[in-house]
Design goal:
With 138 residues, this protein is α+β, with helices and mostly antiparallel strands. It has two domains: 3-48, no CATH class; 69-134, Ribonuclease H-like superfamily/Ribonuclease H (Nucleotidyltransferase, domain 5, 2-Layer Sandwich). 30% of the residues lie in helices and 16% in strands. The protein contains four helices and four strands. It has helices at 3-13, 19-27, 44-48, 110-125; strands at residues 69-74, 87-93, 99-104, 132-134. Strands 3-2-1-4 form a four-stranded mixed sheet, covered by helices on one side. Strand 2 (87-93) and strand 3 form a beta hairpin. The longest helix is centred in the C-terminal third of the chain and has 16 residues, at 110-125. GO terms for molecular function: nucleic acid binding. This is GAG-pre-integrase domain-containing protein. It comes from Sesamum radiatum. InterPro entries: GAG-pre-integrase_dom, Retrotran_Ty1/copia-like, RNaseH-like_sf, RNaseH_sf. Residues 4-50 form the GAG-pre-integrase domain.
Length: 138
């Protein structure tokens, strides 16, 4: 792997962070990249910074914990995370806005991760999950 590929892979793995942050990671010895001259703007970064029209979403917030939980599956990631994880699923409680993220190798693991999430939060809160909103709409 050449330095250009190494820089671009770390840029993507770290959530498309700015070049100055990559330089700081290298300077603080938290990341090893020999040639920082290959720091470029990747193709997707300018597209992600485009402004979007405001979204008029739901105005009412759930009355209690676990009354409404939003979930979404993301992936496949162009560069898998360590361990070969190409997908992730998020669960966000509408009332508290507290969120969970689970890594997955396959999209088919989503239901298993939901059962894992539900068991954990219902045990922590002594409440049952009442409703699940699926997808990116919220």
């Amino acid at each position: 792997m050449n330095d250009h590929e190494n820089v671009q892979i770390w840029h993507a793995r770290l959530g498309h962070i700015a070049n100055d942050r990559i330089r700081r990671l290298v300077d603080s010895k938290n990341l090893e990249i020999d040639d920082l001259d290959h720091l470029l703007t990747c193709e997707s970064c300018p597209k992600r910074k485009m402004t979007k029209k405001p979204f008029v979403g739901q105005s009412a917030i759930a009355n209690g914990l676990l009354d409404l939980v939003h979930t979404d599956v993301c992936g496949p990631l162009s560069i898998p995370a360590r361990g070969g994880f190409s997908y992730f699923i998020t669960f966000t409680d509408d009332h508290s806005r507290y969120g969970y993220v689970y890594l997955m190798r396959y999209k088919s693991e989503a239901f298993g991760r939901f059962k894992e999430y539900r068991l954990e939060v219902e045990k922590q809160t002594n409440r049952k999950n009442k409703s699940l909103s699926v997808g990116p709409r919220w």
